[in-house]
Amino acid sequence: MDGFWCEYRWVLAQMRAPELADRLQLRSLAVTGLLVCRDGIVLGRRNPNSLYLPGFWQGVPAGSVEARSDKDPIDLRAQLLAELGEEIGLTDAVTLTGPLLACEHDTTHIVDLGFRIDTDLPFEAIRDAWQKKANDEYDQLECHSLDRIDLISPQVLPTTRAMLERLAQ
């Protein structure tokens, strides 16, 4: 995969005005996790103030790939673990698998790389960590039984929906 760093304001402009995609030709890279705990799959509802699809459910964590240091190569797993700490408050006790898939969002042209994240923790411990330490990326967390993922809200981000479908196979 090849790419280049650009100013985030270019990505933001394309998110706010999708018609700029033909001119800017940006495919912003992001990582998304599907956190599977002892009790099921953890989803977060995007903050109502989010720029992109507020109120939609998504796998946790998620975030744009960014340079943590100009000299370091991109480490997608480290990026995802950093997002997990920032958004959910978990920093260990997890195993990452993937990326399992890549999914391009229709209007923003963000390319999400989807990873599975497994933990033996119960959902209650994850929710407690989120409430104590995490940022406000999500206004709610839910846990869904693995055998009932067909009942998850239709308001789910594309990458999360694709990962859920893959998990159901």
UniProtKB/TrEMBL annotation:
InterPro entries from the UniProt entry: NUDIX_hydrolase-like_dom_sf, NUDIX_hydrolase_dom
GO molecular function: catalytic activity
Protein name: Nudix hydrolase domain-containing protein
Domain Nudix hydrolase per the UniProt entry, residue ranges: 26-169
Gene3D superfamilies named in the record: Nucleoside Triphosphate Pyrophosphohydrolase
Organism phylogeny: Bacteria, Pseudomonadati, Pseudomonadota, Alphaproteobacteria, Acetobacterales
